Amino acid sequence: MRYREALAEGTAALEKAGIETARLDAWYLLEHVCHITRQYFYLNDTDELKEEEQQEYELAIGKRAERVPLQYIIGEQEFMGLTFKVNPSVLIPRQDTEILVEEILKICKPDARVLDLCTGSGCIIISMVRNLPNIEAYGGDISRQAINAAKENAKLNQTAVIFERSNLYEAFSGKFDVIVSNPPYIPSAEIPNLMPEVRDFEPHQALDGLEDGLYFYRKIIAGSVEYLNEDGILCLEIGCEQASAVTEMMKHFGFKDITVVQDLAGLDRVVRGHL
Questions:
Q1: Among 125, 168, 226, 235, which residue's beta carbon has the most beta carbons within 10 A?
Q2: CATH topology assigned to domain 79-274
């Protein structure tokens, strides 16, 4: 099978499966399997795939047609200009979460002690260290598999982060200058209505914010008072229509100068404040 035939057949299979980004996904999978660039493809589109490449490509297309996320098939995702390894034990890093990192980078001291709760792949804290290499960085997650993935990503991106398996603050001691988190925030009742790629393949432990989606915000905000230094910063990613509730929780625990930041779509995405 030639490259152009593989792309055409892969695209057709994904279109039949209802994948909206069929051609783009087929291309990414072909690029991944055959280790070719788009420029090489256009100059050599009549070249033949090796037999093992064709088999791997067809298998990858089959997985994507079953709604397995592209990033899990390829095994990586770009975030803040860095590459992160991902697997079904961690949430796939989203572009929206870059807003959270960008907000913290604006106000974080270069030598701050920083804790990232619900760290998952480690994309938030690792991206911070790459931009502020002198911070003292920690990340925690209740999932052992997520911690293993985060450690692998820290090594991949040549960053020094201490990752601990932890139920929120449980494994950590001392005070921090910054606490940041993208916790599970989807109400349990909404999980069945998510896109199949998210609902059926991403870890529910990283998605489910329990009954009203606010469970982890209550725990993180309440605990932060004990773990933040004077004037310490708390910065949280939020879901739709959660800004008001999270803001009120932070006010209740004495946070000041609380700011709600919107994402590129104009939706409330981040709440931050300081003690």
A1: 125
A2: Rossmann fold (3.40.50)
